[in-house]
């Protein structure tokens, strides 16, 4: 029992002091009753002496007080020894605690390996998301370009169909042109179907990736919690002071805190991955909007055909040049300032349009945009007859202040 031996060694100085005091008192009492040579001779020389001197009585009293103090000190030391025995931990309990700490350390190492593997998988998933987003951006751009081309082709097809339907010429050239127009319309329809299929594939891939990320984050969190609980269970209930085992336990707790911080970083990475997934979903919605625009192309083409008939101009969707006073250069200037549609120009104030013209230089500042927002609002609402009346009332194609 190394603990008991340590405390017994610590008490040896007090035991030596008590033994010295007791020996001195015993020697004095032995001499007092006449067993030592000095007192025997004194008794023979002076047999008539009956009472001890005052100095001897005082010394005896002091020795008795010291003896009492030594006895009190001895009792106190015994009580301290019993208290230390109750507080100390047995060797068997210490060995069990050390075994539990070793097992917890091994389990913690395994959990660290699992967390490292999960972190690597999470990093791969993030790289996959980045590559998929890049690919998705390229696909969206390509689909936008193809949609724009298809819209132009649809507009040309409808113009040709209208011209062919109003013509009485049944020559082979007209029939070949009609077949070509029908083929272009079929290609546009097929492209819309392919876009829907691609959207469905991207949606499925997005859901799969989100499920994988959620699973990885859940496994990492559960591994960290399991390691922390296992280590906490291995710590003994009785305090043993700042021993070597306690120091090791504190070190392991610090390592667990570091692992928890790593798990928090993994959760932050998961939130970033979810943000990327949300951006990808937004891109998919944009693809869906493009597909819907392709589906609505026939109705838009019919409205544009009606505007062409009423205004006696070749009208395209959101063509700002149908506004009296806007030329090609002015349209490009407005596009560069964020005004690209009839609706946007209709909602813009005259002051804003004038500021855009003034900022472009004197060649643009001479234009008068007072009626441009109203004309654009009519075009956006499909009020072609009212817009034609405005065209007739205005002086020319270019308004100069």
Major sheet characteristics: none
**What characteristic shape results from the CA principal axes?**
elongated
Give the helix tally.
13
> Helix-strand pattern, N to C?
HHHHHHHHHHHHH
Tally of structural domains: 3
Radius of gyration: 51 Å
Number of strands: 0
* Distance, first to last CA: 109 Å
Q: Average pLDDT, to the nearest integer?
A: 74
Query: Please, what is the oligomeric state?
Result: single chain
Q: Residue share in helices?
A: over 70%
**Unreliable runs:** 43-50, 236-241, 294-299, 397-401
Percent of sequence in beta strands: under 5%
Q: Which structural category fits the helices and strands?
A: mainly alpha
Structure description:
It contains 13 helices and no strands. The protein has helices at residues 2-32, 37-45, 54-87, 91-165, 172-234, 244-295, 297-311, 328-336, 342-347, 350-360, 362-365, 372-381, 384-393. It starts with a helix and ends in an 8-residue tail after the last helix. 14% of the residues are buried.
Which tags fit this structure?
82% helix, disordered C terminus, 401 residues, 3 domains, mainly alpha
Furnish the topology, listing elements before pairings.
Blueprint: H1 2-32, H2 37-45, H3 54-87, H4 91-165, H5 172-234, H6 244-295, H7 297-311, H8 328-336, H9 342-347, H10 350-360, H11 362-365, H12 372-381, H13 384-393
Helix pairs in contact: 1-3, 4-5, 4-6, 4-7, 5-6, 7-13, 12-13
Quick summary:
With 401 residues, this protein is mainly α. Helix content is 82%, strand content 0%. The protein has helices spanning 2-32, 37-45, 54-87, 91-165, 172-234, 244-295, 297-311, 328-336, 342-347, 350-360, 362-365, 372-381, 384-393.
């Amino acid at each position: 029992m190394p603990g008991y031996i340590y405390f017994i060694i610590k008490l040896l100085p007090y035991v030596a002091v008590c033994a010295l005091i007791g020996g001195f008192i015993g020697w004095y009492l032995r001499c007092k009753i006449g067993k030592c040579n000095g007192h025997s001779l004194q008794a023979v020389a002076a047999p008539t002496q009956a009472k001890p001197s005052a100095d001897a009585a005082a010394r005896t009293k002091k020795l008795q007080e010291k003896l009492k103090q030594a006895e009190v000190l001895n009792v106190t030391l015994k009580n301290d020894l019993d208290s230390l025995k109750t507080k100390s931990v047995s060797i068997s309990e210490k060995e069990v605690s050390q075994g539990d700490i070793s097992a917890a350390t091994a389990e913690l190492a395994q959990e660290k390996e699992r967390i490292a593997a999960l972190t690597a998988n999470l990093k791969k998933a993030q790289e996959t998301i980045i590559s998929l987003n890049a690919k998705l951006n390229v696909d969206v751009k390509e689909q936008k370009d193809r949609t724009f081309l298809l819209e132009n082709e649809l507009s040309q097809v409808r113009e040709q169909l209208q011209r062919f339907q109003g013509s009485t010429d049944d020559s082979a050239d007209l029939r070949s042109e009609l077949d070509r127009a029908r083929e272009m319309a079929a290609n546009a329809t097929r492209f819309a179907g392919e876009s829907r299929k691609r959207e469905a594939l991207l949606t499925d891939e997005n859901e799969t990736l989100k499920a994988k990320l959620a699973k990885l984050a859940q496994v990492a969190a559960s591994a960290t919690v399991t390691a922390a609980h296992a280590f906490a269970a291995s710590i003994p209930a009785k305090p043993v002071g700042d021993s070597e085992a306690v120091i090791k336990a504190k070190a392991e707790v610090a390592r667990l805190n570091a692992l928890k911080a790593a798990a928090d970083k993994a959760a932050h990475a998961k939130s970033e991955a979810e943000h990327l997934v949300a951006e990808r979903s937004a891109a998919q919605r944009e693809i869906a909007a493009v597909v819907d625009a392709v589906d609505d192309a026939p109705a838009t083409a019919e409205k544009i055909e009606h505007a062409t008939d009423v205004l006696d101009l070749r009208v395209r969707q959101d063509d700002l040049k149908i506004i009296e006073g806007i030329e090609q250069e002015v349209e490009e200037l407005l596009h560069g300032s964020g005004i690209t549609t009839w609706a946007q120009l209709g909602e813009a104030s005259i002051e804003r349009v004038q500021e855009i013209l003034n900022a472009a230089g004197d060649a643009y500042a001479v234009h008068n945009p007072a009626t441009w927002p109203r004309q654009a609002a009519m075009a956006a609402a499909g009020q072609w007859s009212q817009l034609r009346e405005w065209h007739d009332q205005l002086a020319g194609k270019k308004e100069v202040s």
